[in-house]
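Input record (one chain):
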Amino acid sequence: MQNNIKVLLIEDNPGDVRLIKEALIRSREASSTRFLLEHCGDLEKGITKLKNEQIDVVLLDLSLPDSTGLDTFLRLREQISNVAVVVLSGLDDEELAMKIVQKGAQDYLVKGFVNDTLLSRSIKYAIERKHSEEQLKAS
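The corresponding structure, as predicted from the sequence alone:
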């Protein structure tokens, strides 16, 4: 696993942005992985950033000013298919989580139940799973 992971957080709530940033900083103290966090407050800005920059993983909120619910993930995936995506949502909806993972997300986490270790592990596993998926498609 790489030592520097570039993360794009697409999240419109400043409080959640701060909490996620702090969690990634704390998780760095427990491992050699350094998370380089970028942030966008809406889906369209996030998609633009993904088209113009190399990002390893996206943390995607589903309730954004310009998109909500499953449509948020589907719009992102339609535009950008080559990046690992972890949905980080306030919606504790098992049915929605299963749909999103079936549609190609690497993980679905509920904000109120995420700690530093879980977030860090999910990001790392998401990158590994996406890489494995791409290798399978290529073979």
